[in-house]
Amino acid sequence: MTSMLAFPVTPVSAADLSALDRSLALTVPLPDASVRARVGTALLFASLAVWLAAVAGLRLPGWGTLVLGTGLLVAGAAMRLGWGTSEEAHAAHPDGAGDAAGTWHRGATRRGASAWALGVLLTGYYVATYWYPEVLGGLVAAFDPLSQAMRGQAANQWFVYGTFYTLAVVVMGARAARRWKTPYHVARTVSVAVFQVFFAWTLPALLVRLGRPELYFHYTWPLDYDGFWPSTVASLQGAGGLGWAALLWSVLLLTVATPVLTYLYGKRWYCAWVCGCGGLAETAGDPYRHLSDKSVRAWQIERWMIHGVLALIAVTTVLLWIHALTGRLGGAGDALAKGYGFWIGAAFSGVVGVGFYPLMGARVWCRFGCPMAAILGIQQRLFSRFRITTNGGQCISCGQCSTHCEMGIDVRHYAQRGQNVVRAGCVGCGVCATVCPRGVLRLENGRDTGATRTSTVFLPEEDLVVMED
Amino acid sequence: MAAATAARTLRRLGHAGPVTMVCGEGVPPYSRPALMYALMGHVRPRDTALHADAVWQSLRVTLVAERASGLDLAARRVVLDGGGSGARGDVLDFDRLLVATGSRPRPLGVPGEDLSGVVRFWGIHDLAPIVHAAEAATASARGSSRGSAPGSAPRAVVVGGGLSGIELCECLAYLGLRVTLLVREARVLSRALDPAESDRALAAIHSAGVKVRFGASVAAIDEDGATGRVASVTLGSGEALGCAVVGVTVGVVPDVAWLEGSGVALGRGVCVDGSLRVLDDDGAPLDGVMAAGDCAELGAGSGDGAGDGAGGGRLEQLWYTARAQGAVAAYGLAGTPRRYAPGVAFNSAKVFDTEWQAYGEYDAAPETSARWTTHRWHDARRGATLRMVEAADGRLVAVSAMGARLRGEVVRAWIAEGRAVDDVRRRLAEIAFDAEFDARRFVAVGDGES
Q1: Does A43 reach chain B within 8 Å, measured CB to CB?
Q2: How many CA atoms lie within 13 A of A202 on its CB side?
């Protein structure tokens, strides 16, 4: 066959489309932020100033700093969200709700300077909380009144962290629910907020006030990585009936509730409706969901890394028990336990997991590290009834589904072929189905399981025509 | 889209020889329906590419940024226009050819069409001009107004109320302009939607602050003498609408001028037979030359392969038909032509926040549909409508939904098998595709003649 290209031709590639990215991204004129939004931003900065002043030792007496800082934060957020404005004015403004428009235009959400600044601030806060709490200075003391009321003790850096975390889930949850609007999104946002406010913040504080261990009932091994370690089991045994019940609950949650609920609903029952990490990701992390890496390479790394972490925590736990029961392998067990606690529990899950939200999206831990997600993902992939059904044929390949998938799944690849999405990573947030402009995607708990779920490949081209000679 | 689908299908059929795709727009195949979302920041322009470069590489399809300017059938070569790195008159030899040059925007045909501030909305290279026109209009409005009063947002007029025009209205509103849409007909999307559905679409357009004028035609686009930019649009009625940006979205025409004089039959598009083989001037199908997509004119002349190809055929200018035609054309390219027999027709779109899906003969001509019965449902709370059309013998022939999602495969299967509407009416739950917790509760509105 003669070569068809007898002269140098201009090759064309995706780089030519990327060149258009740059020209458009720089020149799209964003409507000036409304006066209300600008006041809101000012209030948010004022809130930050109050907290930083507290760090420096400048505090109002009693509840003063807490009330002022929180009040400014909530008021600022409310104004930026446009509460009180009419729907029309709100919908036309890309700042705030309005679903997916402007995702790639706002500097804060496309790795602009403000995103980097926020990332540095968050990372710094996490580093201080985990490893250098003395840097937090007077900020901790500012939370004493609240801590005394809830826990009957002075505040510590973890109480401050838990309070900020809960505030973020609630305030940004309102934003996320407003952005996506449908009953499913509102329901799951309320759900994670309730789990965070009650099970992750109020109840554990109350238990402490009652002199009991600080128990988190919506959370079990291996995400609660020391939950089944000999040291934890011993301390629970020392807490009487409640301790035993808590241990039993943790075991049942992992061995019974998890497989059953995952079979029925997919791993979304946990990752998008219950989990605290997931709760923050879906609320405070929602503005950054499109920053997840969609490449095949990222998917490959994801698979070996997440199962690696699961293997690591399993081995660590086993070694610790071997040491506890036989006295052997203590060195190895301790070294792994310390290493896991520092590198996975703190650095990966906390510092990178949340600190890097504005740069890498909100599900980096969930996708690349969480051992609970590894277990849930295997169950979802192998035997769950959950899938995202694709309405083969109507897909226009616009790419919004892939863009907004926080787990970096190339949803479009499945949608344009009419193939059900059955992926270990899918947390069932439902945003892909909501942003789809042609109604191609639907999250459902179907009747068929196993291989038939994944094999519904519909070849759109050939199914659209009657093929005859 | 036709070309991209054909290339993929060709490889799936086992064709092993070299495949070269001439990309006239200078970018890899991308999703045209996605353009509005690239402009408004839902996705980036690079995300509209149908496939990553690696996919084309693994398919061994060579993409080149050139434009075809002529076809030499005798020598079996495509002549290029020298816009790429090659020179004018460079050629590409072929054994088999697929003509899939699509369409180009139809000109409005009035004075002032080339003024600064007049934009089209057809391809990816139209996005930057739209943004720049909006920027310039906003800057000059700010410069000339005495404050930041809300009424000082510049005005845009969009000519042509088809889906492209409506999408352009959404883009211009996003860019901060006050938009007026000029529709020639008496109601929105009058061919595809019935009157109740047009009302629903109009409500969606109005809720975004866009104004609509019906029965409006454009006589001229007027120039601002001082700046050389658009100043206003003069309607057929004589009324002038002041504006700084004009969008022209009055349809597309097949991009086939480059084939004139080459010996292929040209009507409005490239005339093809029932297997999408291109016909020559005598109406005979050419060997190894296919056409697919917007540029292909189907059923031209007096029958398959017969007649003089003088036109009178039909054009299918949809994303979905381009895909189907591309697949069928690949069979022809592989040497095993198949008839292009499209299954149940369908289309879908989104008018601002309202999705629309339709299947079957939802846009049948009045003569055909005169004896059909239309059944309607609505969910007033959610603002959703459902329309089903029943033929005289009780078969389901069309389904159209607004603000509600349907299981397309099931709907198309029911129409294809001619299921009785009486049966369908009891089984609406089987075609519901709404999100969980958000099911539409349809209430019958009362039957009537269509």
Answers
A1: no
A2: 8
Closest CA to B66 of B96, B27, B123: B27
The rounded distance, in Å, linking the Cα atoms of A7 and B352 is 47
Label residue A75 exposed, middle or buried (CB < 10 Å: 0-12, 13-18, 19+): middle
Q: Are B65 and A16 in contact (CB under 8 A)?
A: yes
Here the tokens at position A418 are 């009419």
- pLDDT tens for residues A202-225? 999 999 999 999 999 999 999 999
The predicted model gives A155-167 an average pLDDT of 97
ipTM of the complex: 0.92
Partner-chain contact A17 B94, CB within 8 Å: no
pLDDT at residue B409 in the model: 87
**So what's the pLDDT on residue B149?**
52
Select the residue of A21, A92, A435 nearest B208 (Cβ to Cβ): A92
A326 touches chain B (CB under 8 A): no
Nearest to B204 by CA among B364, B383, B423: B383
Is some CB atom of chain B closer than 8 A to the CB atom of A443? Answer: yes
Contacts of B95 in chain A (CB under 8 A): 1
**pLDDT tier at B307 (50, 70, 90 boundaries)?**
very low
**A460: helix, strand or coil:** helix
Please indicate whether, in this complex, the C-beta atoms of B41 and A9 are within 8 angstroms of each other: no
**B80 contacts B68 by C-beta, under 8 angstroms:** yes
Contact B130, B172 (CB under 8 A): yes
Contacts of B79 in chain A (CB under 8 A): none
Q: What is the sign of the dihedral through the CA atoms of A406, A407, A413 and A415?
A: negative
Distance from C-alpha of A348 to C-alpha of B39, rounded to nearest angstrom? 36
In this model, does residue B448 exceed pLDDT 80? no
Task: Indicate yes or no: CB of B45 within 8 angstroms of CB of A17.
Answer: yes
CB proximity list for A369: less than 8 A, separation 6 or greater: A305, A306, A309, A344, A348, A349, A353
- Residues B54-82 have a mean pLDDT of 92
Q: List Cα–Cα distances, B433 to A247, B75, B411, in angstroms.
A: 42, 53, 11
pLDDT at B427: 94
Average pLDDT over residues B373-396: 94
Half-sphere exposure of A357 (CA within 13 A, CB side): 24
A225-255 pLDDT, tens per residue?
999 999 999 999 888 899 999 999 999 999 9
A362 close to A134: Cβ distance less than 8 angstroms = no
- Arithmetic mean of pLDDT over chain B: 91
Angle at B38 between CA A412 and CA A429, to 5 degrees: 45
Average pLDDT, whole number, for chain A?
A: 88
Q: What is the DSSP string of A30-81?
A: PPPPPHHHHHHHHHHHHHHHHHHHHHTT---TTTHHHHHHHHHHHHHHHHHH
DSSP-based helix, strand, coil % in chain A, nearest 5? 65, 5, 35
CA distance A327 to B216: 90
Over 50: is that where the pLDDT of B308 sits? no
Other beta carbons within 10 Å of A274: 20
Residue B53 to residue A1, Cβ atoms within 8 A: no
Residue contact A14–B53, C-beta within 8 A = yes
Look at B435 and A460 and tell me if their CB atoms are within 8 Å: no
The predicted-structure confidence for B277-293, as pLDDT tens digits, reads as follows 999 999 999 999 999 99
Task: Please say if the pLDDT value at position A427 is more than 90.
Answer: yes
Is residue B428 predicted with pLDDT exceeding 90?
Answer: yes
Among the partner-chain residues B43, B93, B407, the one whose CB lies closest to the CB of A400 is B43
- Looking from the CA of A201 toward its CB, the CA atoms found within 13 Å total 24
Q: Which residue is listed with tokens 């009657």?
A: A466
- Length of chain A equals 469
Higher-pLDDT residue of A468 and A428 is A428
